[in-house]
Amino acid sequence: MDKRAVLLSPIQIGTRTAQNRFFIQPMECNDADPEGNPTDLTYQRYENLFRGEAGLVCLEAITITDKNRSRMNQLFIMPQNLPALTRFVSRLREVNPKTLFIFQLTHSGELSNPEFSKRLSVNPLPGFEAEVITEEQFDKIVDDFVLAAKLTYEAGADGIDMKFCHGYLGSQVLRPYNSRKWKYGGPWENRRQFAFDLYERIRKVVPDPNFLIGSKISVWEGFPGGFGTAGPDTPIIDLTEPIDLVKGLEERGAQFFIQSAGSPSITISLTQADKDHPYFAYLHQFFAKVLKENVRRETVIIGSNYSVFGKGKNKLQAVSQEDASLLTYGAKNIERGYVDMIGLGRQSLADPLLPLKLREGREDEINYCTTCDNCLELLIQQAPIGCATYNKYYTDVLVQTRKVKGKLRVNHT
Ligand SMILES: Cc1cc2nc3c(=O)[nH]c(=O)nc-3n(C[C@H](O)[C@H](O)[C@H](O)COP(=O)(O)O)c2cc1C
Hints:
The protein is an alpha/beta fold. It has two domains: 3-368, Aldolase class I (TIM Barrel, Alpha-Beta Barrel), CATH 3.20.20.70; 372-413, no CATH class. The protein has helices at residues 3-7, 40-51, 82-95, 135-154, 169-174, 188-205, 240-251, 268-271, 281-294, 326-335, 346-350, 354-359, 374-380, 392-405; strands spanning 11-13, 16-18, 22-24, 56-63, 100-106, 120-121, 131-132, 159-162, 212-218, 229-231, 234-237, 256-260, 300-303, 341-344. β13, α10 and β14 form a beta-alpha-beta unit. α2 (40-51) runs parallel beside α3 (82-95), α4 (135-154) runs parallel beside α6 (188-205) and α6 (188-205) runs parallel beside α7.
């Protein structure tokens, strides 16, 4: 197998073409200004990613409301943000017009940070003291999602990732734990209707067939009643609902899905396999393969959790270093038909130029993510986020953050 040829081959997504198989995962980096607009730091991060030539870049989780959010300095997508977002997209197009760019739309629901925001839930999980959302409040949230999709289009982006992962509001509605009696609660037919209504309304307000729609989905959340489980009080894996969801969303215009798993505030190692538990990444491979087997041939499946593979010097056993390395493992998954693209999350912070370096034959210059998870420490501490291993600016941010707040052990176990 020629891994370079596989990874650098183009792929069609809907009517659009991504120039290679690299997908830049949405990575919230908490560096927007108080109005939720991009700052110089945000520009620098994305300009580097666009220079890096990935086929498809997803903007980090951008909140549809400033009232319920998980990050202090999160990006907002409300009507007043349109001029700043339009400038942002057009600058990135100047850097590299070929890279496709989508926005990940989110509402944090019960993961909103109560220090500066309001926690809302469709059915609060134990330990997440949240206010229960009324149907009227929820209808307004759906309206705001639809408006945000329209604003994304007007800002000039290529599409949206309607976020259904990692325990944020989209996952909260879909999971069996949402057993409360209300319009979008209880039986699967009610819960899925939320996603179906949203897609149908978004397609109506943005009828342009070139505008991409898809979702990042936690296929199995990994706790009792989480999405992908057999019922509201069991952790048993049952993918009937995730499979039905992707099929229903395809019928409503979805052209791609980003496979993920877990809800990091509950199951962090599952969402982000870490250096002590790299084998969690194999669960993602399985979930991606299941999605791939159940969607139409033309629907693009993007796999997650590749950063832990790095150069192949990880704790994966019973596999050669070459086969345990990101590029070989990723290319093999594409060749075997498990996924169409591979997602780079923490790796994209470590080296935003990876696809470019591979194209130019500079593979030995790639900075591989060490999964030290200092980026997660910065995230939890509400600091601006970047790679503290390879980028001096963020090393200094980390040192400063630890001086003020103390060192935090990101708890994977
Ligand atoms: C600092 C940080 C920020 C993240 N922000 C987001 C986000 O905005 N949206 C999202 O869906 N996932 C987010 N994630 C999860 C990643 O996109 C990705 O799913 C996960 O890190 C696994 O991929 P990796 O092994 O390549 O890092 C974040 C992860 C980290 C470490």
